Amino acid sequence: MADILPFKRPKPADRMEAAAGRELCKSGFHKWEVQKDKRFDVKAGRLVTSYRCARCGATRTEGR
């Protein structure tokens, strides 16, 4: 016979922890980190800094 696993509902506190990062990003509080692999913009011909949010994955570019 198969093992029977008990079903447990997630507690409201556990659900809040999972959504905490996304809620911050929705409000505009991203956690920006510099991407090391993209350093040069070929079309503009200049150095740029690319940032990526560690929580949601959004990207932004800043020229120097």
Give a description of the structure.
By secondary structure, the chain is α+β, with helices and mostly antiparallel strands. The chain has a domain at 30-64. The chain contains one helix and four strands. It has one helix at residues 12-26, and strands spanning 32-34, 40-41, 46-53, 59-63. Strands 1, 2, 3 and 4 form a four-stranded antiparallel beta sheet that branches. The longest helix is centred in the N-terminal third of the chain and has 15 residues, at 12-26. The chain is elongated. The mean pLDDT is 79.
In short:
With 64 residues, the protein is α+β, with helices and mostly antiparallel strands.
Secondary structure layout:
Layout: H1 12-26, E1 32-34, E2 40-41, E3 46-53, E4 59-63
Antiparallel strand pairs: 1-3, 2-3, 3-4
Key words describing this protein structure:
single chain; 4-stranded antiparallel sheet; alpha+beta; 4 strands; 64 residues
The assigned structural class equals alpha+beta
Distance between the termini: 65 Å
Q: Round the Cα radius of gyration to an integer and report it.
A: 20 Å
Secondary-structure element series: HEEEE
**Largest sheet composition:** 4 strands, antiparallel
Low-confidence stretches: none
- Helix coverage percent of residues? 10-25%
User: How would you sum up the global shape?
Assistant: elongated
How many helix segments? 1
Q: Proportion of β residues?
A: 25-35%
Number of strands: 4
| Arithmetic mean of pLDDT | 79
